[in-house]
Design a protein that fits this description.
This protein has 192 residues and is an alpha+beta fold. The chain has one domain: Trna Endonuclease, Chain: A, domain 1. The chain has 5 helices and 14 strands. The strands form 5 sheets. It has a 6-stranded mixed sheet, with helices on both faces. A two-stranded antiparallel ribbon has the order 1-2.
Length: 192
Amino acid sequence: MKYPNNIKKEYKKEINYKNRGMDLEALINDACLYYLEHDLAVIYKKPTPIGVVDVDYKNGAVIHKAYFKEPSTLDYNGIYKGKYIEFDAKECQSKTSFPLSNIHLHQIKHIEKILKHGGIAFLIISMNGGYFLFKGSDLIDFINNNERKSIPYSVIVKYGYPLKYNYNIGIDYLKGIDEAYKGVGYFENTKG
């Protein structure tokens, strides 16, 4: 931008990654509430375990100091059609690939444990204006068979299941679960 006397001043937009993913989480939270109210599934966002060090009770119990007790696992868990479900919400700004650094090692190990015990684990990835359910088994397979530090967008499109936004629901991820696990014996003998 040019000011009088030809003074040139540039402004840099400050990017705050702290709450990246909150929009995605809000849409998922809306869906969880809808599913609960319509008795379709019982899935909740898990609170992050914290230890409180200092609280100000004079001003309505305001926490001044706290720490994370342990690394959190995945953001959401619950039950759908008799199956244990756990998943994480991830937003990606890159147009070409999803960085694996967005997933912590303890989360990957947790996904492996869920899969080993017959549960359903996946990521909901927001990328390039779309939403995808990316199965935990496909994530683990990619990590074990590639040296890359990111999953190409083409792989997410090929193996992921597109999720649609619904005005009444939010992101209707149950339809994605039904599609992703159709024909693999998960829901054949259950209602819903």
